[in-house]
């Protein structure tokens, strides 16, 4: 998944997608341990996609926090 695709998603969509991908990762790990997984590179790709989505969520949290802090500082100056 490309980063621009992730950034286009809403926060709720991201949270839901992270949960789905984490369940998918558990299933892939289980298949890998049972020697049923043929494409082991998929584990790496899923882990990276989860990391990208969590990074975008964190960026949004920090941006919202920064905006809230700037609003409170502006209100204190008045």
Please give a structural write-up.
The protein is mostly helical and 78 residues long. It has a single domain (3-77), classed as Orthogonal Bundle (Helix Hairpins), CATH 1.10.287. Helix content is 85%, strand content 0%. The chain is built from 3 helices and no strands. The chain has helices at residues 3-8, 11-33, 41-77. α2 (11-33) packs antiparallel against α3. The N and C termini lie far apart (46 Å). The model has no long low-confidence stretch (mean pLDDT 94).
Précis, in short:
The protein has 78 residues and is mainly alpha-helical. Helix content is 85%, strand content 0%.
From the structure above, extract its key features.
78 residues, mainly alpha, Helix Hairpins, 3 helices, 0% strand, elongated, ribonucleoprotein, Ribosomal_uL29_CS, Ribosomal_uL29
Shape by Cα distribution: elongated
Order of helix and strand elements from N to C terminus: HHH
CATH class equals Mainly Alpha
* Terminal-residue CA separation: 46 Å
- Rg computed from alpha carbons, rounded to a whole number of angstroms: 18 Å
- The average pLDDT score comes to 94
CATH topology: Helix Hairpins
Instruction: Label the CATH architecture.
Output: Orthogonal Bundle
The structure class reads mainly alpha
Helix content: over 70%
| Number of E-state strands | 0
